[in-house]
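FYI - complex with guanosine-5'-triphosphate, inputs then prediction.
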Amino acid sequence: MDSSLESSSSSQGHLARCSRTCKIIVIGDAGVGKTCLTHRFCTGQFPSRTEATIGLDFREKLLEIEGDQIRVQLWDTAGQERFRKSMVQHYYRNVHAVVFVFDVTNPSSFCNLPLWIDECRQHTLGQDVPRALVCNKADLASGTTSVLIEQGRHLAEVHRMSFYLTSAKGDQMDQVDNIFVTLAQKSKNQRGQRVNECVPLSSRAVTESEIPAGKKTDVRKKWSCFY
Ligand SMILES: Nc1nc2c(ncn2[C@@H]2O[C@H](COP(=O)(O)OP(=O)(O)OP(=O)(O)O)[C@@H](O)[C@H]2O)c(=O)[nH]1
């Protein structure tokens, strides 16, 4: 596992020859910090302002993992039911990994996790798809939140997911990186067992045309890491 790549013509050239895409969806209640986590991973910054996600925000980052270039596509989904209804099918198509997020200061975001896990199951995502459970806003954790954190750990264990206690806002960038890099690595290894070669860009699992209309260009303008 290595560093992420800077945007450069040489890396983009190589990417065109040999690239794998890893689509990771980030789901959970409204306001738990999905946008902030994905933004932090892609830019290294905590956004100064966010608005409720409508439908989907799309961000991506190029990683080099064990000598292979991986295009990590993060699908930051809407937490509010009214903003996600029409998009749910898009979220789950060709997913390689899933991140469930709850907010350490918001017990109901934890109580709702079984609903999110169930939604995944209904879209035929089995337990073999690498998944992580993230307890976010660790910078706001206090004595009273320790029970929720332990419950989170336990739930992750029951569902055989990795557990992370993170803050999109805190100093430790590594914590946030770990979530996505580890999932991308697991997904790569899993797929490597099935297909032991690079997937050409033109036939990769998630093509840009699959990103819902209206999301591609404006999101890239705002968020993309290497365009
Ligand atoms: N203190 C603290 N605040 C955070 C953290 N992550 C997010 N927030 C704040 O929580 C609020 C909601 O964050 P978002 O990232 O927009 O939440 P979301 O899950 O994407 O929400 P929806 O798009 O509505 O589903 C914002 O005011 C963020 O500044 C964190 O790690 N620590």
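The CA atoms of residues 75 and 155 lie 23 Å apart. DSSP finds nine helices and six strands in the chain.
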